[in-house]
Amino acid sequence: MSRLPPLTALRAFESAARNRSFTKAAQELFLTQSAISRHVRNLEELFGIALFYRTHRAVTLTPDGEAYMRDVVEAFARIDLATRRLKFSGRQNVLNLQAFSTFAMYWLIPRLGRFQEINPEIEVRLTASVAPLDFEHSDIHASIRAVAGRVDDGIRCDKLFDYRLIAVGALSMVSAARPLRTPSDLKAATLLHSLARPEDWGVWLQAVGARDVPLEGGMKFESSAMAYRAAEQGLGVALAQSFLVQDEIANGTLRRLFPHEVPSERTYYLMSSPRHCGDPALELFRDWLLGEIAAATARPAAA
């Protein structure tokens, strides 16, 4: 059997190489920076090969270090996957999620494949509901919903994003013979209403100073997702939650018609069932979701 290097030294090297920083590796592994440096130095002495170039301000990988990092990072990833599979072996590994339909259709489902790709052992069961949250009498692991005001102190709530409203429509709304230039021009447009959020148009028009636009008439849909879809088809103008339609605006399916963005009193949260906090499937999903939200939030907003 070949003699492997010390596992603690390998772990220190993997983290330092992946993060390109001894300081970040120390924070990640809850060690001191000098301990990380010592572990890496021990590896270099064992191999007789330099893995890092060291300067006063930074460390960079040598070509040998770069090549070794790729193999070591992959090896630790395989160990992590094997460990998670072992934890889940011998039991049904189901993750029951609940979300508002618009969030599920416009944001979560387009990204859910990435979660399944890295967690193939987890069976995701996603349902949509606007009913009051009831963890006590259901087997829901977590719910994603927009909440107004304070959240329940007894439930772990991770903030995802704020609820902000923008007016959107198809390209035809921009290139029409009488294009919409200001919110007051909506008097001549068809407003698309969501029955789940009937107050949104009134709040938005009041905030942008277009009080002369009538709220009566237009078209009404059971959910915001249906109103967004109608807007994509050129049926009129919908109010969309800006975070949920980033992709549609970026690819041109929807156009943002005005620069106005009106905040709502609601905030989106991932709310975890107290009975399931700590379950591996839920914690893996939570870590993944918060990472996806952070990446999406960091993207520049589409015009």
From TrEMBL:
Q: Name one GO biological process term.
A: DNA-templated transcription
Xref: PROSITE patterns: HTH_LYSR
Q: Which residues form the HTH lysR-type domain?
A: 5-62
Q: For this protein, what is any one GO molecular function term?
A: DNA-binding transcription factor activity
Query: Can the keyword S-adenosyl-L-methionine be found in this entry's annotation?
Result: no
Q: Which UniProt keywords apply?
A: DNA-binding, Transcription, Transcription regulation
InterPro entries named among the record's database cross-references:
LysR-type_TF_proteobact-type, LysR_HTH_N, LysR_subst-bd, WH-like_DNA-bd_sf, WH_DNA-bd_sf
Superkingdom of this entry's organism?
Answer: Bacteria
Q: Say which family it is in.
A: Belongs to the LysR transcriptional regulatory family.
Q: Please identify the protein, giving its name as recorded.
A: HTH lysR-type domain-containing protein
| Organism name | Bordetella bronchialis
User: What taxonomic classification does the UniProt entry list for its organism?
Assistant: Bacteria, Pseudomonadati, Pseudomonadota, Betaproteobacteria, Burkholderiales
